[in-house]
Design brief:
The complex is a heterodimer of chains A (921) and B (377).
Chain A lengths: L1 H6 L2 H6 L61 H14 L8 H16 L5 H24 L1 H27 L19 H17 L13 H5 L2 H6 L35 E3 L6 E3 L3 H5 L29 H6 L2 H13 L10 E3 L2 E2 L2 H9 L10 E5 L5 E4 L4 E4 L22 E2 L2 E2 L2 H9 L9 E4 L4 E4 L7 E2 L6 H7 L12 H10 L4 H7 L1 E7 L5 H12 L6 H46 L18 H16 L2 H21 L1 H8 L11 H5 L2 H4 L8 H6 L9 E6 L5 H6 L11 E6 L19 E7 L13 H13 L8 E7 L1 H10 L16 H7 L10 H21 L4 E4 L5 H21 L11 H6 L3
Parallel strand pairs in A: 3-5, 8-10, 13-15, 13-16, 16-17, 17-18
Antiparallel strand pairs in A: 1-2, 3-4, 5-6, 6-7, 8-9, 10-11, 11-12, 14-15
Helix pairs in contact in A: 3-4, 3-6, 3-7, 4-5, 4-7, 18-31, 19-20, 19-21, 19-22, 20-21, 28-30
Chain B lengths: L2 H29 L4 H7 L12 E7 L6 E6 L5 E6 L3 E6 L4 E7 L5 E6 L5 E6 L3 E6 L14 E4 L5 E6 L6 E6 L4 E5 L4 E6 L11 E6 L6 E6 L4 E5 L8 E3 L6 E6 L5 E6 L4 E5 L5 E5 L11 E6 L5 E6 L4 E5 L4 E5 L11 E6 L5 E6 L4 E6 L7
Classes of the chains: A alpha/beta (921), B mainly beta (377).
InterPro entries (chain B): G-protein_beta_1-5, WD40/YVTN_repeat-like_dom_sf, WD40_G-protein_beta-like, WD40_PAC1, WD40_repeat_CS, WD40_repeat_dom_sf, WD40_rpt
Keywords (chain B): Coiled coil, Repeat, Transducer, WD repeat
GO cellular component, one term (chain B): plasma membrane
Chain lengths: 921, 377
């Protein structure tokens, strides 16, 4: 366009091409626009109000009355809201005790003002923004709450009149000088907020005529539950958690469907449990979609529900039943009840002044006598007696004692003024009356110590004085005074704790607390042994009937396999010895007196005809690879033969030379020794048998087991903090290296796991795979590929060096340098050891331990060179349950440490780094 | 013959094979004087044009809480089964976006799912190395879970893909990480034939995908981590009919062209390719140049009903619509406001070709339909 070009700077453009050409605003000459142009309002510096000094208020120590704004009745809601509105907009920095509500109202009101000009999509965004800001306001104001409360106390009276003045000024179309009057009211004001407040004023003015405007102020239902007077009179401290209420967006008339704007208040509608939007049956499916979290608008999915609607959770309406098939309705209702977003947010419940966390809420809800109808709010809880009540009120019930929830009880928890204390809480008058009726001596303001069974004693004294609720008629008295009595089912505290740990966690919590541990290792690294150990260690029923049956079959076919190898060996040995014999015979032949019939094929490796038959059959099936399919028949037919075969001298002779049979795994002798027993039909594998068995878990590519660490004695010594741990559930997932493929395609499925345990068999260092590579080097390669996999970025790794028992023996005979990766292993200690060989109890580490540390350091170096982080290493003897238990507990500690690490700044400090330095060369 | 001697001979043989393969490739390249796009251009064809409303997202299927890994449509057009890492299969009504079944799986690590031709049952497979069949008509147990009606076990690696043989509910073909594909008889639960494996001329790495020829259900192709695709005949399992080289990365997905004479592939090298099964030639490469060196993988592909369009999901969240004739991207479903936020892991076209469903790691599925008056192509 020519006029624009006229005002650009060509020189600038040449000099710097990236720079946008500057242009000056040209006066608008086009046709008049139909809309209002925004205009900057000049600020009069004199008129910017400044903070006024708050006059000192005499403040009584105990009874500080915090004013609470009463809920406003419907008819004059709009009018009053305007009054309310003006106060916070005046000073957003000193928001008051009920700040979150007020600021929210402002936001909502602001919105309503702009509603006419915004599209609904933007509106939703705006709501979100405002939600955030109000939350922030709520949060930041907590810190200076005290002062601002005072501030407010002081000016509360005045604010009313001034706000009414402000209202008058609203009607006068809000000219600026009027705002000066606010100076006296509270405190500062700055231009931006003035603009916004002005808008609210505007909107309020318009809104009188505008029907479409939504309700400006909606109070949270919790407050409105309580009566108006109560709210005003009581100095109840509001929960300090800002809560957000989602507002539905509607343009329709009152009572109509929020989506199609049709219908009236009498048509049947479904209500969103978050924002209270109502939809007619035609629109429900469109507005709520597939209801993954129950009856929520699509936009509300993921938001916490309206607490007032908690009661109706999972209760299906007739309309839904009509719309969906039965199964679907059930699924939706189940989702509504159990999905995480709909659960009671634990931070809304304060016990003894401390908001709960998830675990605490779980404890509270899953205890034998849980509080009835738990609603958000402040509660006090007497952990010794189990008394439970609303903050500032008399006890409402007696729940399970000794639950580790919330803080410690405060003396003024129930706002008693009787000077008599029970378990450190000053009791109320009603309770005192009850004590008097129960015949408890209350003269002299005693401090009582009451147990959950009602037995009480005076503080500092040993002897039990009696039972509060023991007297006949106490139940009646309590009922009259509406005080709780302990229920009969309450157990003594000791049993309670134990039953706690065995208690199942609610369904929705289970998912969240589950910590996943991935267990990987190349074949033969013993990862399946660890997996089986974990099952045996932590499960009540480690293997189901079916599993045992399968395992039995696997073991038996394994044993047949071992036997086959033995028989094969026997044939070889027989041939060898026959050949030798023949050779000897030949040499004897030269001797005239040598007799040939000595060599009729009988050696110590020869077997009888029947056994020979069986042996041939077995070897044939083994070669054809159908051992699994035929061996069932074998068990039936040949079981008696096995005993004969095993006892045969030839087999025994072969067995004695088993070290020459490379095919025979070392574990085979464990089974072969008991072959007769195992191959019987009624054989039941013991846990140890299962542990030793090969191929029990590897038939599947993946196996997982859920478990939680049982509370052992030492855990209890640590204290109650560990009580949560029993709730934590772990899932050990074992994947086979073979299934991982070359580039570990599906490892990305495991991005939600907590840590990876990588398993390496120490004894592999002198083993070679089929193509001649050292198995340790293969493990290293695999380790590298796993560690550097993008899915495991920033993941913790625990390296388990397994089969230490075998390794210790082996390293004495075969030098560690057999593996080229370890060629610089020169233990200094070897000289010493010759002296102290006889007893290794002294401080000198054994050769095996040295080698282990050396390998650990090798891996640590490798790991840190790949990732720059520290590797955790643990030593393991897979066949010893204690060793596996210790390693898995170590893994748990790492996970826990991981969670806590955020709180500590010493993240780069590892306890285990010392090992690395001591073996550096 | 001693072991080193054998090794030597093996090495020599491998080299010969590689030489021959290379010569074959060169010969092919000599013969291949044009590709589809070049020919189409010379014929004066113009690419398909898409307006902003021609393909719009009309449904969002929400309900999974984990990454969606796989989806499949029923032949009678309006139902979808999807598999997700939350350990569930969900059967959706695509028209109303309602869930008709939510099946909790015994093994949460599911990679694939398939609808049977009659729509009576669904199959799924994953890291448990088994293919599980669920009959949708069977009664749920006390917890509201659908029981497994059949497990097909025998694979030694994860089950990466499964597809029912068209027009019969009793046969299914699975591909697995154990380098084989298997044709199963569902009624007996036994393997009918095994394609590839130890002694046969099969894939030399994990098989990731299978696609059965719609016009001749006795042939199917498989794509594998060995960067090849292979064509198989179910009657002759012993060896692959043909091996298709060309890709430089794992072949993640294969899909038969609607006419049954060609098939498309998608790979980790960021390209989609079109192969002809009769000549064994590579007909076309579909490759979009990217400025940065990070090449997005092709995760899943689907052809439109006429074959003119190729939908390809990429690991960076893009979903290109290619004009198969001119090898041009005509639309990117990853760019609109309401597109997926994560990687597009699977996509599928409804049987009548009127709608496309995409599944993503952002846990949602979206249904895209040809909007307005546009003819389905």
């Amino acid at each position: 366009m020519p006029p624009e070009e006229a005002v650009t700077f060509p020189s600038l453009e040449n000099e710097d091409e990236e720079e946008q050409p500057y242009s000056f605003a040209v006066e608008y000459t086009g046709p008049p626009v139909p809309y209002d142009l925004p205009r900057a309002v000049p600020i009069n510096v004199e008129k910017i109000p400044v903070a006024t000094v708050v006059s000192k208020v005499p403040l009584s120590n105990t009874e500080l009355h915090i004013p609470v704004v009463p809920p406003i009745l419907a008819p004059d809601r709009n009018k009053l809201s305007k009054e309310l509105l003006l106060q916070p907009t005046v000073s957003p920095t000193s928001v008051i005790a009920f700040e979150e509500r007020v600021s929210e109202d402002t936001n909502n009101c602001l919105l309503s003002g702009e509603l006419s000009s915004y599209e609904s999509g933007e509106l939703a965004e705006l709501i979100n923004n405002n939600d955030n800001s109000s939350r922030r306001l709520g949060a930041c104001s907590v810190s200076n709450e005290h002062s601002s409360m005072l501030d407010y106390c002081d000016s509360f009276g005045k604010s009313r009149e001034s706000s009414s003045r402000a209202r008058v000024s609203n009607d006068d179309d809000l000219n600026q000088p009027d705002w000066g009057s606010n100076e006296s009211v509270l405190s500062l004001d700055y231009p931006s907020s003035r603009v916004s407040s002005r808008k609210t004023g505007d909107c309020n003015n318009e809104s009188n005529a505008d029907i479409k405007r939504p309700q400006v102020v909606t109070f949270r239902d919790i407050e409105s539950d309580d009566g108006l007077d109560e709210e005003f009179g009581q100095d109840e401290v509001q929960p300090q958690v800002a809560r957000v209420k989602r507002e539905p967006q509607t343009k329709g008339k009152k009572g109509s469907c929020y989506r199609c704007f049709k219908g009236n208040r009498f048509t049947e509608k479904e209500v969103c449990i978050v924002c209270d939007a109502k939809y007619c049956s035609n629109c429900v499916l469109g507005a709520m979609g597939s209801m993954p979290e129950g009856r929520k608008c699509v936009t509300c999915i993921g938001f916490p529900i309206d607490e007032a609607k908690r009661g109706s959770l999972g209760k299906c309406s007739r309309m839904l039943k009509r719309l969906f098939i039965d199964l679907e309705v059930r699924q939706i209702m189940k989702a509504e009840k159990l999905c995480e977003a709909n659960q009671l947010p634990p931070e809304y419940i304060c016990v003894n002044g401390q908001p709960l966390c998830h675990e605490e809420l779980a404890i509270l809800q899953s205890c034998p006598i849980p509080p009835k109808k738990l609603k958000p709010g402040n509660y006090w809880y007497d952990k010794v007696s189990g008394l439970w009540g609303k903050e500032g009120q008399k006890p409402s019930m007696i729940i399970s004692p000794h639950l580790n929830v919330g803080g410690s009880i405060r003396p003024d928890a129930s706002s008693g003024n009787t000077q008599i204390f029970i378990n450190g809480r000053e009791i109320t008058k009603v309770e005192l009356r009850m004590l008097q009726l129960a015949g408890v001596q209350v003269a002299g303001n005693p401090h009582f110590w009451v147990n959950e069974d009602g037995s009480y004693q005076e503080e500092g004294q040993k002897n039990m004085k009696g039972y509060i609720w023991g007297k006949a008629g106490m139940k009646l008295v309590c009922a009259v005074l509406s005080l709780p009595v302990p229920s009969k089912s309450s157990n003594p505290g000791g049993e309670l704790l134990n039953s706690m740990s065995g208690r199942s966690v609610p369904d929705y919590l289970e998912q969240r607390i589950l910590q996943k541990i991935l267990l990987v290792g190349s074949t033969g690294s013993g990862s399946s042994t660890i997996f089986k150990q974990a099952k045996i260690l932590y499960k009540d029923v480690p293997f189901s009937e079916d599993e045992r049956e399968n395992i039995k079959l696997t073991i038996q076919s394994n044993v047949y396999g071992y036997l086959g190898i033995l028989l094969e060996g026997r044939e070889r040995f027989e041939e060898e010895s026959l050949a030798e014999m023949r050779k000897r015979a030949c040499s004897k032949d030269t001797d005239p007196e040598g007799s040939i019939d000595d060599g009729d094929g009988k050696t110590i490796y020869s077997i009888g005809l029947r056994l020979k038959e069986f042996s041939d059959w077995l070897l044939k099936t083994m070669v054809s690879g159908h051992l699994e399919t035929i061996f069932l028949a074998a068990t039936r037919e040949y079981a008696p033969l096995i005993e004969e075969l095993w006892k045969d001298a030839a087999i025994q002779a072969t067995y004695n030379r088993r070290s020459e049979l490379e095919m025979l795994p070392s574990v085979a002798s464990y089974y072969l020794e008991r072959a007769v027993e195992i191959l019987k039909m009624d054989y039941e594998p013991s846990d140890l048998d299962i542990l030793y068995a090969e191929g029990v878990t590897s038939s599947n590519g993946l196996a997982c087991v859920d478990f939680s660490f049982p509370q052992s004695l030492c855990d209890e010594n640590i204290g109650t903090a560990d009580q949560h741990d029993s709730l934590l559930r772990y899932q050990l997932i074992r994947v086979q290296a073979r299934g991982l493929g070359e580039n570990c395609k599906w490892l990305e499925m495991f991005e939600d796991i907590g840590m990876v345990i990588f398993c390496v068999a120490l004894s592999d260092y002198d083993q070679f795979s089929a193509d001649g590579t050292n198995k340790m080097l293969l493990s290293r390669k695999f380790f590298e590929s796993i560690v550097t996999h993008p899915t495991f970025d920033q993941m913790d790794f625990l390296l388990i060096l397994n089969k230490f028992d075998q390794f210790e023996e082996k390293v004495e005979q075969v030098p560690l340098t057999r593996c080229e990766w370890f060629d610089d292993f020169h233990p200094l200690i070897s000289r010493h050891r010759t002296n102290t060989n006889s007893n290794s109890i002294n401080n000198n580490p054994t050769h095996g331990q040295l080698a282990f540390h050396y390998i650990a350091v090798k891996f640590k170096r490798l790991y840190s060179s790949l990732t720059g982080r520290k590797l955790y290493v643990s030593l393991l003897k897979g066949l010893e349950p204690k060793s596996v238990d210790a390693a898995l507990k170590f893994a748990r500690e790492i996970l826990k440490w991981d969670e806590e690490r955020a709180n500590f700044s010493l993240s780069e400090h590892s306890f285990y780094s010392t090992e690395a330095s001591s073996f550096s060369h | 013959m001693s072991v080193p001697e054998l090794k030597e001979r093996h090495a020599a043989a491998t080299e010969t094979v590689n030489n021959l393969r290379e010569r074959l490739r060169q010969r092919r390249n000599e013969l291949l004087d044009t590709d589809v796009a070049g020919y189409a251009r010379s014929q004066g064809r113009s690419p398909v044009t898409f307006g902003p409303t021609d393909l719009v997202c009309c449904r969002i299927l929400q309900g999974h809480t984990g990454k969606v890994y796989s989806l499949d449509w029923t032949p009678e057009r309006n139902r979808i089964v999807s598999a997700s890492q939350d350990g569930r299969l969900i059967v959706w009504n695509a028209l109303t976006s309602q869930k008709t079944h939510a099946i909790k799986l015994p093994c949460a690590w599911v990679m694939t799912c398939a609808f049977s031709p009659t729509g009576q049952s669904v199959a799924c497979g994953g890291l448990d190395s088994m293919c599980s069949i669920f009959n949708l008509n069977s009664l749920t147990d006390r917890d509201g879970n659908l029981p497994v009606s059949k497990t097909l076990s025998g694979h030694k690696g994860y089950v990466s893909c499964c597809q029912y043989v068209p027009n019969e509910d009793i046969h299914i073909i699975t591909s697995s990480g154990d380098q084989t594909c298997v044709l199963w008889d569902i009624t007996t639960g036994l393997r009918t034939s095994i394609f590839g494996g130890e002694f046969q001329s099969g894939h030399t790495a994990d098989v990731l995908s299978v696609s059965i020829n719609a016009s001749d259900s006795r042939t199917f192709v498989s794509g594998s981590c060995d960067a090849t695709a292979r064509l198989w005949d179910t009657r002759a399992a012993s060896r692959a009919v043909r091996t298709f080289h060309g890709h430089e990365g794992d072949v993640n997905t294969v899909k038969f062209f609607p006419d049954g004479n060609r098939f498309g592939t998608g790979s980790d090298d960021g390209t989609c390719r079109l192969f002809d099964i009769r000549t064994g030639h590579q007909l076309q490469v579909y490759h979009q140049q990217h400025g940065d060196n990070e090449v997005p993988h092709v995760t899943s592909i689907a052809f439109s009903i006429s074959g003119r369009l190729l939908f390809a999901g990429y690991s960076n969240g893009n979903c290109y619509v290619w004009d198969t004739l001119l090898a041009k991207v005509v639309l990117n479903l990853g760019s609109p406001q309401n597109s997926h936020e994560g990687r597009i892991s699977c996509l599928g076209l409804s049987a009548d070709g009127s709608a496309l469903c995409t599944g993503s790691w952002d846990t949602n599925l979206k249904i895209w339909a040809f909007g307005g008056n546009r003819r389905v192509i």
